[in-house]
Write a structure and sequence with these properties.
The protein has 172 residues and is mostly helical. It has seven helices and two strands. α3 packs antiparallel against α7.
Length: 172
């Protein structure tokens, strides 16, 4: 397991802030710390506030959490493909299309948190299975080259970004 953060050239510009935001000494620690922050923040939201949005046209609390679940699944899939030396360029995804299609309003916060735990456990198991040479593999996603370790760090930082938004705009 690499304790080193990815080099800037391993990270698409869009993800660099996420990687910098992620705490920890290695990618697995960063993933664990991010998941703990997600669960602490979203567990503090009463179920009755799950469909709250801080402004018209913004996502609800449940939509933000479901976005984190979807994004982590996509990021883990990309990491798996690249770690397995699959050089096929992978497409991006449009979260603004995915969020309404997921129908988060039909779900409970408790159910979404349970799903996040399950998805995150699978992501963590995947990253723990990688050896150094796997973490250094690179591929192309959404037209941008990225390394497996950068995907892990970005996954953690992306989650923390949304925790900050939740605290500042939904709960603040």
């Amino acid at each position: 397991m690499s304790s080193e953060r990815p080099l800037m050239e391993e990270i698409p510009a869009f993800y660099r802030g996420y990687v910098q935001e992620a705490p920890g000494a290695d990618v697995c620690e960063a993933l664990v710390l991010a998941a703990e922050a997600v669960h602490a923040a979203f567990s503090a939201v009463p179920e009755a506030r799950g469909d709250h949005r801080y402004a018209p046209g913004k996502w609800t609390v449940k939509e933000v959490l479901l976005h984190l679940i979807d994004a982590e699944r996509v990021f883990a899939y990309r990491a798996l493909r690249f770690a397995r030396r699959d050089a096929t360029p992978l497409p991006g995804f449009d979260e603004d299309t995915w969020v309404p299609a997921a129908r988060a309003s039909r779900r409970t916060l408790a159910g979404l948190l349970a799903e996040h735990r399950a998805v995150h456990a699978a992501t963590l198991a995947l990253f723990r299975s990688f050896e150094e040479e796997d973490l250094l593999q690179r591929g192309t996603a959404n037209g941008n080259p990225i390394s497996v370790r950068a995907i892990g760090w970005a996954t953690a930082g992306h989650a923390l970004h949304h925790v900050s938004v939740l605290r500042e705009r939904y709960l603040g």
